[in-house]
């Protein structure tokens, strides 16, 4: 049984190259490249719909007395940590897998979990199922990155990677359009149903249009030479990843970048309300500017490095990293209420963090990794990033609550320590990225 399962997910066997004209072969490759890229972008967006469904239905679940806020917090954290572990393990597995089947399986399981959750009232069962969903959720990014590595050359990959990285923003938008509309009309149970059906649609698209390797379609491999696909070759390449100091330095750099990213995402509205006296609506509007600009930064990050920096990511990573530091200083250290100044800070922060998510969050590691170990490289960076994000939430909460005082019955906060914690994380991210300044893009 296990042998059949392993064989089912094994990398596809190559087909003999068809005898056809050069122009016909180029046209076929281009069609399959676009098919793989678009299905990866759409499919990963559907992963996000299934991942964020719980965020939309929390309030009605509490109002019906199904779970308390504390229980929902525990449930959410379980997905967060199983996802972090999965980012590491599934990155290694994706390198060795038929990514069409691998990605389809992950989306299918998380969709089925969503379908079941609408009928689940047991806290323990709900937690276990959401945790399982988190691990299968992590199969999506690894499959997509391996797919981009297999189908695109180093000089092409940055542009496509940047546009693909915006898929999570697409998923977030679809979540609030589809799931929120269903919940408002029919109740929270149908919200999970809507997310699950959307996930099933995504799984069908991935199964049909997301291709494994060029060789499996009768095309020559991407790049100058063909990589072997035997177990010894994968073991050697993935061991090489674990022994590369540059990969671990990038992982730490990404972890600090995720601290600053999730600090603003998780606590930005709270900060603007407590420190500067903004209303909930105005504070939310300012922070949302960062998210919108993040889409722009992510989508064009690869194009910027490929077209203007010859495929090298180090200089643009430095430029946009310094932009993030400047934006946080503008946002956190300028006293008083200045709406347009805070909005400008979020424009700069969103653009910068969008680029860094693409570069430090995976692309730079993929560039310097062997092509047949790109999933492993993403796994190392991914687990460090999400551990950083999780630790940030704990540390920010401790620092905020620990510096709270009551003055005439009114809560007052001293954000001095939190300001420098967030800015310091952004600075460390830039400094660590500089340590891999001389890392060369992989040419094999």
Structural features, described:
The chain is built from 16 helices and two strands. Strand 1 (404-407) and strand 2 (410-413) form a beta hairpin. It has 444 residues and is mainly α. It has helices at residues 2-9, 22-63, 69-95, 99-117, 123-137, 139-151, 154-165, 167-186, 188-209, 231-242, 245-276, 280-308, 314-333, 339-368, 374-402, 416-434, and strands at 404-407, 410-413. A two-stranded antiparallel sheet has the order 1-2. Residues 440-444 have low confidence and may be disordered. Helix 7 crosses helix 14 (339-368).
Summary of the model, kept short:
Helix content is 79%, strand content 2%.
Task: Name a few traits of the molecule.
single chain; mainly alpha; two-stranded antiparallel ribbon; globular
Topology of helices and strands:
Elements: H1 2-9, H2 22-63, H3 69-95, H4 99-117, H5 123-137, H6 139-151, H7 154-165, H8 167-186, H9 188-209, H10 231-242, H11 245-276, H12 280-308, H13 314-333, H14 339-368, H15 374-402, E1 404-407, E2 410-413, H16 416-434
Antiparallel strand pairs: 1-2
3D shape: globular
Count of discrete alpha- or pi-helical segments spanning 4 or more residues? 16
Mean pLDDT value: 82
> Ends: how far apart?
36 Å
What's the main sheet like?
2 strands, antiparallel
Radius of gyration, in angstroms, nearest whole number: 22 Å
């Amino acid at each position: 049984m296990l042998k059949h399962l392993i064989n089912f997910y094994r990398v596809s066997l190559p087909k003999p190259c068809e005898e056809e004209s050069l122009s016909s072969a180029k046209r076929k490759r281009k069609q399959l490249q676009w098919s793989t890229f678009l299905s990866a972008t759409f499919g990963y967006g559907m992963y996000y719909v299934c991942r964020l469904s719980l965020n939309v239905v929390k309030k009605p679940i509490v109002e019906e007395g199904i779970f308390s806020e504390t229980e929902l917090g525990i449930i959410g954290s379980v997905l967060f940590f199983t996802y972090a572990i999965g980012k590491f393990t599934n990155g290694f597995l994706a390198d060795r897998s038929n990514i069409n089947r691998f990605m389809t399986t992950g989306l299918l399981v998380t969709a089925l979990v969503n379908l079941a959750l609408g009928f689940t009232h047991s806290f323990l069962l709900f937690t276990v199922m959401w945790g399982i969903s988190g691990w299968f959720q992590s199969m999506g990014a690894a499959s997509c990155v391996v797919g981009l590595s297999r189908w695109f050359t180093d000089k092409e990959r940055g542009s496509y990677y940047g546009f693909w990285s915006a898929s999570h923003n697409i998923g977030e938008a679809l979540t609030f359009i589809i799931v929120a509309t269903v919940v408002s009309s029919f109740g929270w149970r149908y919200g999970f149903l809507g997310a699950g059906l959307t996930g099933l649609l995504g799984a069908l698209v991935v199964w049909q249009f997301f291709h494994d390797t060029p060789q499996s379609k009768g095309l020559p491999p991407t790049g100058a030479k063909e990589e072997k696909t035997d177990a010894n070759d994968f073991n050697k390449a993935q061991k090489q990843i674990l022994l590369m100091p540059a990969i671990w330095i990038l992982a730490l750099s990404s972890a600090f970048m995720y601290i600053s990213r999730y600090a603003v995402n998780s606590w930005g509205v709270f900060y603007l309300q407590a420190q500067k006296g903004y209303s909930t609506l105005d504070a939310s509007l300012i922070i949302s500017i960062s998210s919108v600009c993040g889409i722009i930064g992510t989508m064009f990050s690869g194009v910027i490095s490929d077209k203007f920096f010859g495929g090298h990511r180090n200089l643009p990573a430095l430029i946009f990293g310094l932009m993030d530091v400047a934006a946080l200083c503008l946002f956190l250290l300028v006293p008083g209420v200045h709406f347009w100044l805070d909005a400008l800070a979020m424009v700069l922060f969103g653009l910068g963090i969008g680029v860094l998510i693409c570069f430090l969050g995976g692309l730079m590691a993929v560039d310097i990794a062997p092509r047949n170990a790109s999933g492993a490289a993403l796994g190392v960076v991914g687990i460090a990033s999400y551990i950083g994000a999780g630790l940030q939430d704990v540390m920010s909460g401790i620092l905020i609550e620990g510096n709270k005082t009551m003055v005439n019955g009114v809560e007052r906060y001293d954000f001095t320590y939190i300001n420098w914690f967030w800015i310091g994380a952004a600075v460390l991210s830039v400094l660590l990225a500089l340590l891999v300044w001389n890392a060369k893009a992989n040419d094999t």
